[in-house]
Automatic annotation (TrEMBL):
Composition-biased stretches (Basic and acidic residues): 1-16
Cyclin C-terminal domain span: 246-363
InterPro entries noted in UniProt: Cyclin, Cyclin-like_dom, Cyclin-like_sf, Cyclin_A/B-like, Cyclin_C-dom, Cyclin_N, Cyclins_cyclin-box
Keywords for this protein: Cell cycle, Cell division, Cyclin
Superkingdom per UniProt: Eukaryota
Start and end residues of each Cyclin-like domain: 153-237, 250-332
SUPFAM superfamilies on file: Cyclin-like (SSF47954)
SMART domains named among the record's database cross-references: CYCLIN, Cyclin_C
Record protein name field: Cyclin-B2-1
Region feature (Disordered): 1-30
Pfam family, one: Cyclin_N
Similarity-based family: Belongs to the cyclin family. Cyclin AB subfamily.
Amino acid sequence: LSNRQEEGCQKKKLDSLRPSLTRSQDEEPLCAEERKKLKQSVPSANDLVDCILVEDEEEATLDHPMPMSLEKPYTSITEEADLMEEVEMEDVSVEEPILDIDVSDAKNTLAAVEYVKDLYSFYRKMEMFSCVPVDYMMQQIDLNEKMRAILIDWLIEVHDKFDLMNETLFLTVNLIDRFLSKKGVMRKKLQLVGLVALLLACKYEEVSVPVVQDLVLISDRAYTKYDVLEMEKTMLDTLQFNVSLPTQYPFLKRFLKAAQAEKKCEMLASFLIELALVEYEMLRFPPSLLAATAVYTAQCTLDGFRQWNSTCEFHSHYSQDQLMECSRKMVSLHDKAATGKLTGVYRKYNTFKFGYIAKCEAALFLLSTVSHHHHPS
């Protein structure tokens, strides 16, 4: 496309988004039917600002336990085999083989199967730099956990309306948390931080990046183009230009492949891990653990019993026991996803596009501390 055609496409895309995200005084008056559609669209940025500016009357009573270790030991397959020697022969089943999940991509140069193990080994070493202190919000004088949740819930809807890539959403939230853990921010600037994080993530991940004026419009002109560009410089300086760090998403893709997950399981795992994005308490878990837990919990939800096979354990480096604490929290988030004020993720996944996967019943049996074996085959 020529530059003129690209500009025309961008303008057409923005014009189609504008009625659902902004209110312009220069536009012609809407008819009654259009006005009704407008009210049903994405919550206006004014609502977000009002929510963030209102003083939080209910003090958060979340416990902030120590962060989990990123490299917990797990029982290897060979150690399990040694333990089985004491079991009588008639009770011993054939050891489950570990599948080569990359064999089908051997001829796909884009899959880079010769490097994939080294890549994910590197991601595991680097993910500690993605993590933030679990109590960083205590250092913020004018912000709290609820304001963060309101912002991310709104950004998830904006991300969906702009039809951006999944990687962009996870990087956006990661940039927000890393920035807030290092820089004090006034509540009236919190939405600006979110929009700038989205802009930076788009520049890193997207082919077509929203222009700054798009972000000004979806904020209901609460900020100017100058405000956005100044905050962009501040954020990059604060993060020392370290934009690219492993998020939950690359781990999620890898573990879904290890689980040989079908589309329904993929959508449910994505739903669960996006619920975790909104919840401040889930920052205590590293990205790889959140991804493995989302896949495990999705499998259990759809199949109705606990399962985590040898292939999943091998590629995730997490045993079923190591996933249980995080899984119980994820199930609780799933169970209450449709209630309360922050239902952006539920509404996103309760659509035809995502197979109405949000309607799935939560796997409440995982909340039990009683251990169950694999479902008999």
